[in-house]
Amino acid sequence: MILEICANSYQSAMNAQKAGAHRIELCTELSVGGITPSFGLLKKVMAALTIPVHVLIRPRSGNFTYSDSEFKIMKEDIQQCKDLGCAGIVSGVLHANNTIDIKRTKELIELSKPMSFTFHRAFDAVPKPKESLLKLINLGVDRLLTSGQKDKAEDGIELLIELQQIAQNKLIIMPGSGINQMNSSLFKNARFTEIHSSASREISENTHSYFGNTPQTVSDIDTIKNILDTIA
User: Fold this and answer.
1) Which pick of 12, 107, 186, 205 has the fewest CB atoms within 10 Å?
2) Distance between CA atoms of 209 and 206, rounded to whole angstroms?
3) How are beta strands 172-175 and 143-146 bridged, if at all?
4) Contact 3, 32 (CB under 8 A)
5) What is the number of structural domains in the chain?
6) CB 162 within 8 A of CB 171
7) How far apart are the first and last CA of the chain?
8) Rounded distance between C-alpha atoms, residue 102 and residue 126, angstroms
9) In sequence order, what are the residues at sequence separation of 6 or more whose Cβ sits closer than 8 angstroms to the Cβ of residue 203?
10) Are 156 and 173 in contact (CB under 8 A)?
């Protein structure tokens, strides 16, 4: 079973590799669901890591419906990832009614080749998940990151299993959100082949209210090792 670590910083990325994770998804600002990492961070991580690096392409927080300018930024970011030799892209686009924007998502997939393409948790907002999955399969998406449309993947396990049955070997269903050493065996027993986790812990708390109250987190080596032991 493959463990992908959602790494929100250079230290998180290094911790993931040191702990034995199989792959990372690099992003920043997990408190808002993650956004595209800076070019400087991406370049440094690519120079340091030997495990595959997938990169979140999401230009801002909020919804997944983008302006023409935002979409252009996304395409430029994908090209940078390709130039740096990244292994995969994690992205996706929705219409204002939360249905999949087929045209724009297809454009991102085509631009990403030969990198792997993962459709991210924008999927957890779509109104008809089973029909939407078939559309992603037809688009040639390699992988779907989803919590089963619940806050935590553990609570969405029934839909996740249904999606996996529909996908068969045409697309990888990768459960993510709230996966840890206590529940990771649930997904292994359900025969998922990949799981996604930030495996994070707080390392400091901002005491200055002017800057908000979001704590700083890092992917934790021991937590990653514990998950790996559980799914071995």
Assistant:
1) 205
2) 7
3) parallel
4) no
5) 1
6) no
7) 7
8) 13
9) 215, 216, 217, 218
10) no
DSSP code for 30 = G
Query: pTM value?
Result: 0.94
CATH assignment of the domain containing 35: 3.20.20.380
Displacement of CA 17 from its chain's centroid (Å): 17
* The pair of three-digit structure tokens given for residue 180, joined into one six-digit string: 């840890």
Domain, as residue range, for 226 = 2-116+177-231
Mean pLDDT for each consecutive 10-residue tract of the chain (232 residues)? 98 98 96 94 98 98 97 98 98 98 98 98 96 98 98 98 96 97 96 97 65 79 97 94
**Is 112 among the domain residues?**
yes
User: Per the structure block, which two tokens stand in for 38?
Assistant: 């800076």
CA distances from 185 to 62, 155, 200 (A): 32, 14, 18
Determine, yes or no, domain membership for 122.
no
User: What pLDDT score does 215 carry?
Assistant: 76
Residue 160 lies in a domain: no
Q: 63 in a domain, yes or no?
A: yes
Q: Are 138 and 100 in contact (CB under 8 A)?
A: no
Say how far apart CA 116 and CA 86 lie, in whole Å. 9
pLDDT for the residue 31: 86
pLDDT recorded at residue 212: 60
Q: What angle do CA 112, 161, 191 make, to 5 degrees?
A: 85
pLDDT of residue 51: 98
* CA–CA dist 121, 116 (Å, integer): 16
